[in-house]
Design a protein that fits this description.
The complex is a heterodimer of chains A (about 170) and B (about 120). Chain A is α/β, with parallel strands linked by helices and about 170 residues long. Chain A contains six helices and five strands; from the N terminus they run ααβαβαβαβαβ. Chain B has a domain of about 70 residues: Copper binding periplasmic protein CusF (OB fold (Dihydrolipoamide Acetyltransferase, E2P)), CATH 2.40.50.320. Classes of the chains: A alpha/beta (about 170), B alpha+beta (about 120).
């Protein structure tokens, strides 16, 4: 009961925070940061295991990409899943608790949408192994890679900025 | 000089203790990650903890939750007490069906790694 209350309060706090950020963002811009930049390469490192926070992060991820595009930049994006977040990008309602299914569906919808927009979505095979999830149980949009940490290193070496979503 | 009967008793006692320990280790080692004729196996997420009933529910990756009863003979690894179980923890459970209830033989709480 206390756990549910804490979760509800956390969700309300996040939504409030998000509302404040959105309100603030409407009056501000990132002109100084984006000055002279034509292309943005971003690697979103997603390792959250909380379904509510994960949905919120997917919304933030979408908003961030759209805002960079609105600023006139070309955006190349990779979303890397690892850790507890891995469970939510598997097929159907598998690997989650009953009460997480509705949020899993939202996350799956985001994954499909991101993939249609050309965003690369990767899953660390080491995390999948630890969670005992075989490759074929991941959504079709997911590219399972050998080691998520190597992806982080590699994309950074290619000039991608890493945005942690933990 | 230790009397012969005391020495014999000590040897017998030590053999018993060592033998029991070895049997316990063997019982744990023999449990494979699959269901057998005598023992059923499930791996999944703890979906609920019933402290008053000494039970936990485990939801396997594909399928409905299974309710498991823990008794004093259940071997626990990764946790000391039923109170240590929490929702969303990954567990491996070996159990037998006894009079309609699923009695846990061994439960391992998996490590939570960030990788």
């Amino acid at each position: 009961m206390i756990g549910l209350l804490q979760k509800a309060l956390l969700t309300i706090s996040i939504i409030s925070c998000f509302t404040v950020i959105v309100a603030a963002a409407s009056n501000h811009n990132n002109d100084s940061a984006l000055k002279g930049i034509k292309t943005a390469q971003v690697y979103f490192d997603v390792s959250l295991k909380d379904d509510n926070l994960l949905v919120f992060r997917m919304e933030m991820l979408d908003k961030t990409i759209k805002q960079i595009e609105d600023a006139g930049l070309e955006v190349r994006t990779v979303v890397g899943f690892r850790g507890g977040a891995s469970r939510f990008i598997t097929k159907d309602d598998h690997y989650v608790l009953e009460e997480e299914i509705s949020n899993k569906k939202k996350i799956q919808d985001w994954v499909k949408q991101f993939s249609e927009r050309g965003i690369i979505i990767e899953q660390c095979s080491i995390a999948a192994g630890i969670l005992d999830i075989p490759q074929e149980d991941f959504m079709e949009e997911i590219k399972v890679v050998g080691n998520g940490y190597i992806s982080l290193v590699g994309y950074q070496a290619q000039g991608y900025s890493v945005v942690p979503m933990d | 000089m230790i009397p012969r009967n005391i020495t014999l008793t000590l040897i017998l006692l030590m053999s018993f203790v060592l033998g029991s320990g070895a049997a316990l280790v063997r019982a744990g080692e023999n449990l494979e990650e699959m269901s057998t004729e005598d023992t059923l196996y499930v791996r999944g997420l703890v979906s609920r903890v019933y402290l008053d009933k000494m039970q936990i529910s485990v939801r396997p990756p594909k399928g409905d939750s299974i309710r498991i009863t823990i008794d004093p003979d259940t071997i626990l690894e990764g946790v000391s007490l039923i109170d240590d179980f929490q929702k969303e923890q990954q567990v491996k459970v070996w159990y037998s069906v006894d009079k309609g209830s699923n009695l846990a033989i061994k439960i391992i709480k998996m490590m939570e790694l960030g990788c």
